[in-house]
Amino acid sequence: MIAAQPRTLLAFDFGLKRIGVAVGQTQTRSASRLTTVSVKREHPDWPAIAKLIETWTPDALVVGLPLNMDGSEQEMTLRAKRFGRQLEGRFGLPVHLVDERLTTREAKSRLKLEDRVDNGADPVAAQVILEGWFSEQSTSGGEQV
Q1: Do residues 8 and 23 lie in contact, with contact meaning Cβ atoms separated by under 8 Å?
Q2: pLDDT of 39-63, one tens digit each?
Q3: What's the pLDDT tens digit per position in 2-26?
Q4: Distance between the two ends of the chain, CA-based, in angstroms?
Q5: Is the CB of residue 20 less than 8 Å from the CB of residue 12?
Q6: Hey, what CATH topology would domain 8-140 get?
Q7: Calpha distance 129→133 (Å, rounded)
Q8: What are the extents of the domains in the chain?
Q9: pTM of the complete model
């Protein structure tokens, strides 16, 4: 059996003021927080995102999909989907949308355990989103990159 080639992914925790970013790879199914990208007047800092993509050369992108607790969509769901379409269109990479319910809570919990202040929650939330994607791939029996 031939092992699958390791793939690199960037994950985004979309927000109206900030976008958290994390990186991970399929071989170890691990994710690491990277940085926060600013959003001004509803426009992400596309040059900063392009630099991250140029630096990490991901095979795919993962975007957190904010849903209500009952699984229904909300205004932020539509905005996150739009952001995902923009990523796909600008960079020509596949974009996977992942349910991000409770990721911010998990991110804040991790930061509290690290005795860090809350202003670093966005990249941690992106890390949690990517870990969730890896988990989904494990349970579905496949790797969609």
Answers
A1: yes
A2: 999 899 999 999 999 999 999 999 9
A3: 456 769 999 999 999 999 999 999 8
A4: 19
A5: yes
A6: Nucleotidyltransferase; domain 5 (3.30.420)
A7: 6
A8: 8-140
A9: 0.84
